[in-house]
Amino acid sequence: MSTVSTDVARVLIAGSWRNATPQSTFHSTDPNHNSELPQAFPVSTWEDCEAALEAADKAAVELRRAPAAKIAEFLCLYADKIEAAKDTLVEAAYSETGLARSPRLADVELPRTSNQLRAAADSCRSGNWALPTIDTKAGIRSCYRPLGPVCVFGPNNFPFAFNSVAGGDFAAAIAAGNPVIGKANSSHPETTRLLAELAHEAVVETGLPEATVQLIYRTSHADGERLVSDPRVGATGYTGSRSAGLTLKSAADRAGKPIYLELSSVNPVVITPGALSERNESIVNDFVTSVLMGTGQFCTNPGMVLLVAGDETESFISAVKERFASTQSGTLLSPAVARSLSKSVSILTDLGADLLTGGGEPESDRCAFANTLMRIDGAKFLSDPEGFQTEAFGNASVLVVAKDIAELCDVIDHLEGNLTGCIYSKEDASEEADVDKISFVLEPKVGRILNDKMPTGVAVSAAMNHGGPYPATGHPGFTAVGVPASLLRFGKLTSFDNIRPMRLPALLQDSAPAAETMRLIDGQWRTGDVG
């Protein structure tokens, strides 16, 4: 961090790119060379937050009156602009994160971002996300309505798809009818600035309130807590470290403000003896590819593998160790990620995990850390389950070798909440009794359970749950991926009792607002008019 520069990026507040009122500035890092990038970004004081809140509060009132079709038009136009600016965005994101230009950024993440904006637009247009419900006999009608200004804190590992002014939380909040105050992640502020420029253009061209999208880059910890607990805030979406997330949650909880957190997850993968005896090499390939892809910087990275002692398990471990040791480590997102990974590995080895390969200190000329594989037995894990679940975010994983299925299930029973849990088993039914036991204890621990595939991919599907019990998220009943369910986090359920027809929101009037709108009318889900 440095003192305030004369050439500092501007913040977007109340529809205008303006100079911040910074207390200091910061720079992002080129992780490929571990060097500071030239553009300075402001650490805003509360004055900027106050101005953004005031503007968002006014915008929220206007958005409540805006037709759903107008909001959907904005989301689609914004998606178009993102695709048109693909080359510029990809280059900025590559410079700030080290993630591969292709296929990762250009061919996977950027299309995913524009597609989820369009999916949110479809849900906004139909209104199905709002669960419109009509009871003609009782004279009561209900649906979800906009909640108010939403603050979005984006993570470091998805500069497009989870960006605070373009990603899933942003799309859901806007589609639900709320303005967004985006807080850029310090790992990719320039990428976020470019996205915010496009979003602002789309806001102006579609005639939405100019404060529908606002952007600040960083605040003090105290101002961040004050921001999420402000009376004008409807809710907050946060993806990041457990410690920072829980600090924000504590502040929001004291004020009674919803905050939806994605924190930490080791994403256990269970591999049965039968699966290894049947297709050891294939599973080795699946695991190594998954844990080293993107240098392991996915929230669904398989950070823990649960095995049963035996010759096939030893063969699996030996093959994985060789692959880890012989594969060039990838670039990590930032110096902070490299330091955090090194610290987590040290914690695990100090507790007694055996270091099979990797470890050590981060590289100095780029943000990188050796591919790291650790091992413990089931009894050792059970002696300190909390400690051995320390998340090593990056290209590292822990193998837990239980003496039998009973001990393996005991290990699972001591796991914290996770985003995902996976079971690899023999293709025939000979292990079903054991798999039933494993599934029974694993399912309550995770938000998504998988068979015979690694958890890294998170499909943009209406059936997807990207959530899970604490500490994977702050609430097990919601998802950050999957329209329309993701929109519900940013809505307020409102019941209209004996309200005159002309005063009802469009979703609840007798005439259906759109041909595709599905409403629960007198106990039956259907399209069409009431009557």
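That was protein one. Protein two is written in the same sequence-then-structure order:
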Amino acid sequence: MSQGSNLIARIAAPIGIAMALYHMYAIAIAPPQALIYRGIHLSFAIVLVLLLYPLALREDGRRRFMWVDLLLLGCGVLAMGHLFINYDYFIDRIIYIDDLKPLDIFAAIALVVLVLDCTRRVIGWALPITALLFMGEALFITRVDPLTLLDQLYMTTEGIFGSTLGVSAAYVMVFVLFGSFMERTGTGRLFMDFALALTGRSAGGPGKVAVVSSSLFGTISGSAVANVMVDGPITIPLMKRTGFSKAFAAGVESVASTGGQIMPPIMGAAAFVMAEFLAVPYATVALWALIPSVLYYVACFGAVHFEAKRQGLRGLPDVEVPVLARVLIERGHLFLPVAIILGGMFSGFSAPLCALAGMLACFPVAMLRSNSREGLNWRLVLEALDDGARNTLAVALACACAGIVIGSITLTGLGITFTNMIVGLSQNSLLLALVLTAVAGIILGMGMPTTPAYIVMVSLMVPAIMKLGVIEPAAHMFAFYFAILSAITPPVALAVYAAASLAKANIWDAGWAAVRIGAAGFIVPFMFVYEPALLFIGDWQTILHATVSATIGCLTLAAGLNGHLIRHARLWERGVLVLGALLLIKPGIYTDVVGLALIALVYLVQRQRPLETAGA
């Protein structure tokens, strides 16, 4: 590493640690006023991005800090310094009425450019281009006055410093820190051993290990790609060794890792944004997501099981599978920080405070036993703080850039236009409107992270399906799901790309395998729109009935798509199984009865078929 790179690393690390400690202090004591708190959060993020992602590349591929980065850093100091020094001026002025001063205009332009550029450096061009398109629509089509747009984006909490950035500062930062602390204390190994002990010996065991461990690791990682890169190097070679194809192994890992963002108790960053938008406790959002996330993983687990049975695959030998009791005795105490978070949230404490308590418990809990205590020191604590801050940068800049989109939409009323357009295109058909919204979510998610994709959908698409009668929680959860599922949907499927590279599989083969394995994930959102009982909304009888029928439907769908129930399924049997599954998934007692009858028919036919003629 060059001397310049070393210097940047020495500068960036203390700033990252300071960012983490500031947010911990703000959550523990009391955060300052919204504009100040969000401004400090964004200031830390911009400085770290400029240091860690400089513009220039050296010939050896390393990045080099240069004068343009220094100039941008100076602009950032001016823009944010103006906010902090003249805070009373910001809150006392009347938006759209009081004229902007020259310093206001320069600082606003500087910050907008800086946010767009820093977002591009961290997550690529898709979101900045989207923001520029919405700004262009405001300026050149709706003819919004440029100064009014700058007023909205910089001088208020309805633009860059909006509620989305507030979610990043108040929620995402501390939960990412919690994940970083969990990783440093060996919880990832606990999750893997726990999953191996539960499912390693069964048919297709390594695939089931990927499903269970990825759902657990999702509690400490909000990124599908990060989940793949942690679990994949272990689970994918095991799946290949036991007989799964390269493409199927990559598909299983990518689908299982993507589901981490919808798996309570700790979901992806967009779930915290949803709680903010709907003004409900985060625990309520987690409760809404519980049954759909279980259905998602049941279907994924079923796909692995039926594929393994179809191919006649076995699990791992006993010598390679840890004993569950021993895993829990030796490392089960590492589950305590998660238990602390759950207990705190269900006791009525705020999610950030619970996450802080869980985070602070990680190292003391790891010190309880010698096997988890080994190697722990203060250097690891500092590394966890710095790593947590760095892992927050993509979300922080995405939320700030999404603020530009929301501010532009608010000024132009584009959301109302989109709502009317979708209602018109769908001809007042809810199903068609949902399909249009789902396609939009997948397209948006192909180019940007889940959080901004969800935010844009909430601004443009969700009002339309609500206008057609969808209740608010179901509408938001629908958008949330499809913003996530883009990670496994070709042609741009980032989780599949990561898993395919580990499996050395063809990307398209892995992508279509992922779609087949995660097929239920594309149907579950339609299920809870038509039957909100799957979101724990309604009486217990309805919730129980909807959950049981949907679970059977998801398992049967996996059986039909993978060509095996209790024997290898012939083509007509696969078609009947898929039809029966869809009838069970659709709410209604009559469709459930017909669906069960079709499944029973295939079961009886296969039961009469001798094993030696399976697949004939």
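Residues 49 and 118 are 6 Å apart (CA to CA). Keep this in mind for the problem set.
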